């Protein structure tokens, strides 16, 4: 029989000591430390929450489908010598092929 299967080696090893309920209760922390430590922790949490509120980004402008399907021509049309701006996103339309439904887009 190989040595790894020998039962006598297993029987001779010491078992782990059991921990009683009383010992577990002694190890647990009953309450948060009071006094100066809790005061500093509270002030730190206050400033942390204010920092998180100030670092929040404002909501972005709603995404339009101009990139995929093209820009929307304003009702006033394309006047000679001036470039119109898209009704949805407000960008300047430089080329008629950038208009919606003007050419087939991939």
Q: Can you describe this structure?
A:
It is built from 4 helices and no strands. With 106 residues, the chain is mostly helical.
Largest sheet: none
Q: Taking all residues together, what is the mean pLDDT?
A: 76
Our measurement of the CA-to-CA distance between the termini, rounded to an integer number of angstroms, reads 72 Å
The topology string of helices and strands comes to HHHH
Shape: elongated
Q: What is the helix tally?
A: 4
Q: What percent of residues adopt helix (DSSP H or I)?
A: 25-40%
The value of Rg in angstroms is 36 Å
Low-confidence stretches: none
What oligomeric assembly is this protein in?
single chain
Number of strands: 0
Class computed from helices, strands and strand pairing: mainly alpha
Task: Give the DSSP E fraction (strand runs of 2 or more residues).
Answer: under 5%
